[in-house]
Amino acid sequence: MKTLLLCLSCLLTPVWALAASYVAGDMVNSITLLDQHDKAVTVTDKTQVLLFSRSMKGGDIIKETLTPLSETQMPTGLVYVADISGMPSLIAKFVAVPQMKDLPFAIGLDREGEISRLLPDTKDMATMILLNQRNIVDIAYFDSSEALSQALAKLNQPQ
Fold first, then answer.
1. CATH number at residue 140
2. Which residues are the signal sequence here (predicted)?
3. Can you give the pLDDT at residue 19?
């Protein structure tokens, strides 16, 4: 009986629950989240650069990188998504999100952690995912805003 229950539970477990994270070559699902101003932020076929953070440190790296950029310096098709599900909801609501409203760019906020669960990350690093029609071309991790700034600057250079 125990064996039968184990087999049934394995069969009924959704396949997505077993997936670790996206890798190069995978297609990212369309993502739509509300930003810090309650406006929709969407990852579409036109998104070329997806920045992602799951930790405060990764978020700080991305914020330090994007804050000084003018609109013309911002790579075309850039979307920033942050998983803030690990943050206590009161802190998010009354401290973190209000502070984010001062930033000059939108952050798609995954408050539950479900929508961004398959996005790759490394502890205390910022993730940059390069996309072509939502297909992952490359994934890179950054531990400093300087390194991420250099990578984004290269994307803006004519090929």
1. 3.40.30.10
2. 1-19
3. 55
Of 106, 90, 105, nearest in space to 31 by CA: 106
Global pTM reads 0.85
Alpha-carbon span 34 to 38, nearest angstrom: 5
Rounded distance between C-alpha atoms, residue 131 and residue 139, angstroms: 9
Total count of domains within the chain = 1
Average pLDDT, the chain: 88
**Domain span at residue 91?**
21-156
Q: How far is CA 152 from CA 20, 24, 42, in A?
A: 26, 19, 20
Rounded Cα gap, residues 154 and 105, in angstroms: 20
